[in-house]
Prior knowledge:
This protein has one helix at 2-15; strands at 20-24, 35-41, 44-51, 59-63, 73-76, 82-89, 97-101, 104-107. Strand 2 and strand 3 (44-51) form a beta hairpin. By secondary structure, the protein is mainly beta. The protein has a four-stranded mixed β-sheet with strand order 1-2-3-4, with no helix packed on it. The chain has a four-stranded antiparallel β-sheet with strand order 5-6-7-8, with no helix packed on it.
Amino acid sequence: MNWLVQIVGHVRDFFRPRYRAVYSDDLPDILVRQKVYLIGEDRDPWQAAMVCPCGCEAKIQLSLVPDDEPSWRAAVDGAGIVTLHPSIWRTRGCYAHFFIHQGKIKWAKDSGRAH
């Protein structure tokens, strides 16, 4: 029976929408769920922004400037699917802790707990 639960989980994961990149010169006033906004000129982003995937609707803004501390890296494939590295951990509010890998949210085991 455990194998059936695993198969259902993989099928559900396959059909789950993926996070896609939206390039913009400025941060939009309204962010859409399941989009990662890459802010900068000429597709050279210096910031990533998104709505928290936990459902709290908080706006998350991440620096993509390599010399900043902390700093993230964004990779976008040919279909616009986003990967962000390292993990994202909100330090207040919902304390969501997650990765975005190939457009999919991967929740960390300690998500929801203060660090």
